[in-house]
Design goal:
alpha/beta; 367 residues; 8 strands; 8-stranded mixed sheet; single chain
Length: 367
Amino acid sequence: MSLKFRVVQRMRSAVGSHGLVRSMWGYVDSTLKWCWIPGWLPPWCPTSEIQLQAAEDMMLRCVNSSFSKLYVHIPGGNQLWTLIFSGVGVKDKTPVVLLHGFGAGVGLWAQNLDALSRRRPVFALDLLGFGQSSRPVFSSDAREAEDQFVESIEQWRAKMGLESMILLGHNLGGYLAVSYSIKYPDRVKHIVLVEPWGFPERPDTEESDRPIPVWIKALGAMFSPFNPLAGLRLVGPLGPTLVQTLRPDFRRKFSSMFSDNTVSEYIYHLNVQTPSGETAFKNMSVPRGWAKRPMMQRMERLPPEVPITIIYGSRSSVDSNSGSGVKEMRPLSHVEIITIRGAGHYVYADQPDDFNQRVLQVCDKVD
């Protein structure tokens, strides 16, 4: 029996023979809420925690520096998966703490870890709800979900015994880096934001400027209660192929390290586990990816003594106007905006050498 036939049979058995819309809604509702039916996930989505760990190990096999990895236990019974790079000659330097973006994990820093760890300690952690870290139930309230992320970072810092740090965050990690720094400014020596998510307010004229077809609005309304990556889990065993087909660019980004599907396999296993952080992100967002609590509305609460560097890719679709807005809002503070040519949203993977050099130059200004 072919794989395609088995998938179709599984879908038919799930939706039954009633009306398509009603049946699909019931199917999606029963399978794509914040968690899956435990007995159903393994045969439907070919993944497991062990497979995720193996995929991460494959991502890190080209990292030459020595490092350790461990689960850091924090209150609430949770644990954050952490990579530690701390050579003998750099232990007294302020460490760089890497916070990945939505749907990512520590393995995607593979092209940056060697270079960044030559001059100071580097810590890379899977955010709560992502990667190999614990995947708890987050609050459905945007403010409370954000606080859960922030407090987990602070609890991790305290457990690791770090007095202060350079926080480098990409995408969602950048948003959380600023949120953390507003609450715990004394713990942050410098913020490096890489293509940060969630800064601008949703424009009032968005729909009038770019009309959206009615059928797309209807589909959006139908699937709005569900998580952003629910479709990846919905297709079950076709998921790995779907990632390879829809995101062939990730293979190119890491072509200097891998010639196979190592990256797409890692991304797949990252994002078909229990969607904990994914659900939190959805609850912190409004349709089309805008933040419910835009960070620009809170930048004045960040003490002026905290310096910021913002890095954008010249080919990214992310609007860099937020960076200029931050600079205008903080005339008495250090705010530097860097644009890396030839890079898209994943700056650190698109142009890793240029990115690493720019970050090292920023960090050299910190003890």
